[in-house]
């Protein structure tokens, strides 16, 4: 553990875990992430950041100088389905754009509870279709996301199967939520070691995100879907977070279905530590691994 991670872990425990314990609701994320978005750093000058529309979905495009515009990474941010902005993840997305030399399209999808399921998934499908319509070949597209965005990444792949649309070349899932129907072992075992979340907030997610829907629906809980034929997938998660088993169970299910899966379980880091890459060497190393995975599959 780097000294930077030691300090950041303590800060996260004080600023986030305590607030979740007091509130007991996932909606606390909105206040936290809104504040972080207002203070988000700009990308470096060699990364062009612009706001565009992908079929009506507001999107932050991050593009390096001389980028290969025939390739694309569609990125879906986390935030418990109720919070977040592309700016929250800029430390991650600009580095992925730089290290893969391709545009990153970070979508600002509609949030629950104002826009409950399936609004966010519909926005992801629309954005993906628009990239295809723009002439980007599916074998040159990757889709990635963290936490709730990792859920939407997997749900998007399942939805593409149902719609008969081509799969992207690769998926990247960072600590994804994969099953809203049943808590995993790590929800309880890692309740204390998880630096960010309190267990009470997980019960509030279905009521905010998908009221009136069966949480066993594969487009809500991708672990319960038919995962055969999904693209090669990289998973990263923390050994000590409550969502660890959402990753490991999903990865194992996909592996058993014949999907090419890589799984990285990192010790001592907190949930989606990659977004703190400006200060964490562990975040920069994880992003290096993601870029290597993408470059190998989008050649």
Keywords:
alpha/beta; 9 helices; 8 strands
Overview of this structure, please?
The protein has 299 residues and is an alpha/beta fold. The protein contains 9 helices and 8 strands. The chain has helices at 3-23, 28-38, 90-100, 119-133, 148-163, 185-189, 205-209, 244-256, 281-297, and strands at 47-54, 57-64, 72-76, 104-107, 141-146, 170-174, 233-238, 261-266. Strands 1-2-4-3-5-6-7-8 form an 8-stranded mixed β-sheet, with helices on both faces. A hairpin with a 2-residue loop joins β1 and β2 (57-64). α3 packs across α9 (281-297) and α4 packs across α5 (148-163). It is globular. The model has no long low-confidence stretch (mean pLDDT 96).
The strand line-up of the biggest sheet is: 1-2-4-3-5-6-7-8
Helix count, DSSP H or I runs of 4 or more residues: 9
For the biggest sheet, the summary is: 8 strands, mixed
Radius of gyration over all CA atoms, rounded: 17 Å
Low-confidence stretches: none
Distance between the termini: 34 Å
Order of helices and strands: HHEEEHEHEHEHHEHEH
What's the assembly state of these chains? single chain
Average pLDDT for all residues: 96
E-strand count: 8
| Anisotropy-based shape | globular
Helix content: 25-40%
Helix/strand-derived category reads alpha/beta
Strand residues, percent? 15-25%
């Amino acid at each position: 553990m780097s000294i930077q991670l030691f300090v950041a872990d303590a800060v996260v425990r004080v600023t986030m875990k305590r607030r979740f314990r007091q509130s007991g609701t996932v909606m606390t994320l909105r206040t936290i992430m809104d504040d972080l978005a207002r203070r988000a750093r700009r990308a470096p000058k060699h990364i062009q950041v612009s706001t565009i529309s992908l079929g009506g979905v507001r999107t932050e495009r991050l593009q390096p100088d001389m980028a290969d515009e025939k390739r694309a990474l569609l990125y879906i941010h986390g935030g418990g389905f109720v919070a977040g902005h592309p700016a929250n993840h800029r430390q991650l997305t600009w580095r992925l754009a730089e290290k893969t030399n391709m545009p990153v399209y970070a979508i600002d999808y509609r949030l629950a509870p104002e826009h409950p399921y399936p609004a966010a998934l519909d926005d992801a499908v629309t954005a993906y279709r628009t990239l295809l319509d723009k002439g980007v070949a599916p074998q040159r597209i990757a889709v990635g996301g963290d936490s709730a965005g990792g859920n939407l990444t997997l749900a998007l792949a399942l939805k593409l199967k149902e719609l008969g649309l081509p799969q992207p070349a690769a998926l990247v899932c960072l600590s994804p939520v994969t099953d809203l129907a049943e808590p995993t072992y790590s929800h309880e075992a890692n309740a204390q070691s998880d630096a960010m979340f309190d267990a009470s907030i997980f019960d509030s997610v279905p009521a905010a995100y998908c009221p009136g829907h069966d949480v066993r629906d594969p487009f809500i809980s991708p672990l319960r879907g038919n995962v055969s034929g999904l693209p090669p997938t990289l998973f990263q998660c923390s050994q000590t977070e409550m969502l660890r088993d959402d990753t490991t169970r999903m990865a194992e299910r996909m592996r058993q279905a014949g999907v090419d899966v890589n799984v990285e379980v990192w010790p001592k880091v907190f949930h989606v530590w990659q977004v703190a890459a400006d200060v964490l060497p562990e975040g920069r190393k994880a992003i290096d691994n993601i870029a290597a995975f993408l470059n190998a599959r989008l050649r």
